Amino acid sequence: MSDIADGSLAYEGVKRIEWADRSMPVLRQIRERFADERPLDGVRVAACMHVTTETAGLIRTLQAGGASVALASSNPLSTQDDVAAALAEEFGAQVFARAGIDREGYYAHIHRVLETGPDLVLDDGCDLVNTLHTDREDLLGTVKAGCEQTTTGVIRLHQMVQEGALRFPVVAVNDTATKHMFDNRYGTGQSTLDGIVRATNTLLAGKTIVIAGFGYCGRGLAERARGLGARVVITEIDPVKALDAVLQGFTVQPMAEAAPHGDVFITVTGNRDVVNADHLAAMKDGAILANSGHFDVEIDVRALDAMAVRVHRNVRPQADEYVLDDGRRLVLLAEGRLVNLAAAEGHPAAVMDMSFADQALTCAWLVTAHEGLAPAVHDVPAEIDGEVARLKLASMSVSIDALTPDQEDYLHSWRIGS
């Protein structure tokens, strides 16, 4: 039995799922293959992911391969209620997701999907795996392996491995080359700015945009913000990434120096308190605060709330205005949660086509491969990543060269001199 907001929304959800599917040719090809080969027959999958039209494409692909799927949301503000209804009412998945549900309800939904006794778990931030290893150890017995979709989740998993806590193998789908390139760089870069513009209707040209973090997500954001005419400032703790940003022409400063000058602040670090009380106290009137890291801890929202003498909720959809005692106003988007999913629609479907193709093929591989894997964090096999890239190129009618036998010999022989 699913727990969704409104089953009558299913028709609208189906229309939007089918629209997204048009931009996901790689996943469509895998779905057709799965329908013929049935690599997931009898496999129970529990997933904690953003309930969006793109995720629906993955769920349908796993089902085509023979899996039964139970899905909970990995973020209450990202749930699309019409998609949840369509998956539950039209596509036969068990769905436990409602937009805007509170923390207690969020974890209740995670418990519900775990109670289906999954063979494989798909996670987006490690909350599913964390709950299994803390509150629901009684359900660990059936789980053979899992996949993790986010940088934040992979960091947590590595910490579990270091402490000897992880009880089954997990594949870091997040770390594939195709996922980093498409999802983090191009997806986050575009969808984050889309969310900020939808929430504020602000002109980015001429603004100073401060981006905390210069990983794949931060690079994509910086490139697109510069393309829209913004002055971009990067804050970093990693000297190599900071140097990379400098050599790409961006200003690099500590957050304390950037805080008084920024018009828009965007966090994409995976860490907490990246924007803290001291930074908030230094910001100019009207500064906009947005987070595109996985959890709502990167901006210290509690400190902001304590500093405010008044809070105007929803001055625009997904925009709350905090008034400080000196009259300055700071605007927090999406409650400090993922702005690209809460204030917009997340990554374009063409981006998630790549990430979810990696996910689907990895699930099929894990059905047999899990037996030879230790309880640790594992990479997606290179051949899966390469196959996804080849399928994507083919869908774009792009051809590439192939090595000749002589070239293969040259690359694999140490005896050939210069």
Unreliable residue stretches: none
Number of helices: 17
Largest sheet, strands/sense/barrel:
8 strands, mixed
Tell me the Rg in angstroms: 22 Å
Question: Helix share of residues?
Answer: 40-55%
Q: Quickly name the level 1 CATH class of the largest domain.
A: Alpha Beta
Based on CA inertia axes, which overall geometry fits? globular
> What kind of assembly state do the chains in view correspond to?
single chain
Average pLDDT over all residues:
95
Determine the N-to-C terminus distance: 68 Å
Number of DSSP E strands: 15
- CATH-derived topology of the largest domain: Rossmann fold
The order of strands across the largest sheet is 9-8-7-10-11-14-13-12
Please state roughly what percent of the residues sit in beta strands, choosing from under 5%, 5-15%, 15-25%, 25-35%, 35-45% or over 45%: 15-25%
Binding site for substrate: 52, 124, 179, 183
Keywords: Cytoplasm, Hydrolase, NAD, One-carbon metabolism
InterPro entries: Adenosylhomocyst_ase-like_sf, Adenosylhomocysteinase-like, Ado_hCys_hydrolase_NAD-bd, NAD(P)-bd_dom_sf, S-Ado-L-homoCys_hydrolase_CS
Organism: Actinomadura algeriensis
Describe the structure concisely for a colleague.
This protein is α/β, with parallel strands linked by helices. The chain has helices spanning 10-21, 25-37, 53-64, 81-89, 103-114, 127-134, 151-162, 177-200, 216-227, 239-247, 255-258, 277-282, 301-307, 339-342, 349-369, 382-395, 405-411, and strands spanning 44-49, 68-73, 94-96, 120-123, 145-148, 170-172, 208-212, 231-235, 251-252, 264-267, 288-291, 308-316, 319-324, 329-333, 377-378. 51% of the residues are buried.
